[in-house]
Design a protein that fits this description.
By secondary structure, the protein is an alpha/beta fold. The chain has nine helices and twelve strands. The strands form two sheets. The protein has a seven-stranded mixed β-sheet with strand order 1-2-3-4-5-6-7. β10 and β11 form a beta hairpin.
């Protein structure tokens, strides 16, 4: 469960203030028919993907803060496409809380989520906003939540092309909905894959959870996609199958650190060792606290 308190938010805000301007965080992949927006550190380096048709678009994930969601909306508007569908891959607030901003900009869009994910969002989104909003200055987050509708099929159609919405898999949380676009040889992995960032491991402290994440990676690798869009990355990170190897290597690192560390301090030091240049360092403190709860 994602928890943000005032102390954590101050550190995130400071990281965001030091980040580059929004203009540097758009990645265009003309050959795949997608635009990818990557948030700043204050937005937790989340990827949102805009799948482009000739006249319409499908958006995957809605960002965390109002500022990042508004920048995503600007990117979408600049494509000149009509937003038909906004799909939310999982219940974590950094993928859902910006949905209100997108719906204000694109009121004709239909927000959807897989039935299992939609149920989790319906239960948790408002309490999360209440908790997170109370820890942040006014205006950082949207003032309301939007609960997506249940996606009634296993795919989304965009101008006749089929976007496969896969059954939820285990990644940094138990239910994450990847997407496969066969015509574009593209997988939107969401938080089953990360690139050049620390992993959100708070919900993966047990061997069986880590093993389930590894199986999800194998499932997506089996699709043999040429373009793989991770859930979190730095703006200049790759979007190809190498993100699976990166994620698997970090899971190796996590398991080794868990086995060898005897305290919160040792675990944090082990996670940082060799990973000093990775983004989303906020995730380390949450992972450590999940194993060694503060007294």
């Amino acid at each position: 469960m994602f928890i943000l308190n005032r102390r954590n938010f101050i550190s995130l805000a400071a990281a965001g203030a030091a980040a580059t301007a929004f203009a540097g965080r758009f990645a265009h992949a003309a050959s795949t028919g997608t635009e990818v927006f990557t948030s700043d550190e204050a937005g937790l380096l989340v990827d949102s993907t805009v799948i482009l048709g000739e006249k319409s678009a499908v958006v995957v994930d809605a960002q965390f803060t109002q500022a990042n969601a508004a920048a995503l909306a600007d990117l979408i508007a600049a494509t000149g496409r009509k937003v038909e569908t906004i799909l939310i891959t999982h219940f974590h607030p950094d993928h859902i809380l910006g949905l209100a901003v997108l719906m204000d900009r694109f009121p004709d869009a239909k927000p959807v989520a897989h039935a299992a994910v939609q149920g989790m969002i319906a239960q948790t989104a408002q309490p999360m906003l209440d908790r997170i909003g109370g820890a942040a200055p006014a205006g950082v987050f949207a003032s309301r939540v939007v609960i997506p509708d249940v996606l009634s099929a296993d795919h989304i159609k965009l101008e006749g092309e089929r976007i496969e919405v896969l059954a939820p898999l285990h990644g940094d949380t138990a239910l994450i909905t990847p997407l496969h676009i066969p015509a574009l040889k593209t997988v939107i992995a969401a938080d089953i894959a990360y690139a050049d960032t620390h992993l959100w491991l708070e919900e993966n402290t047990k061997p069986e959870q880590i093993a389930a994440w590894r199986e999800s990676i194998k499932t997506l690798q089996g699709l043999n996609a040429e373009t793989v869009i991770p859930g979190h990355r730095k703006a200049d990170s790759k979007s190809d199958a190498s993100v699976f190897a990166q994620t698997s290597a970090y899971l190796d690192h996590w398991e080794k650190a868990l086995a060898e560390s005897k305290s919160a301090e040792e675990l944090k030091a082990a996670l940082l060792a060799g990973n000093e240049g990775l983004g989303f360092a906020f995730a380390i403190d949450r992972a450590v606290a999940a194993v060694y709860p503060p007294k």
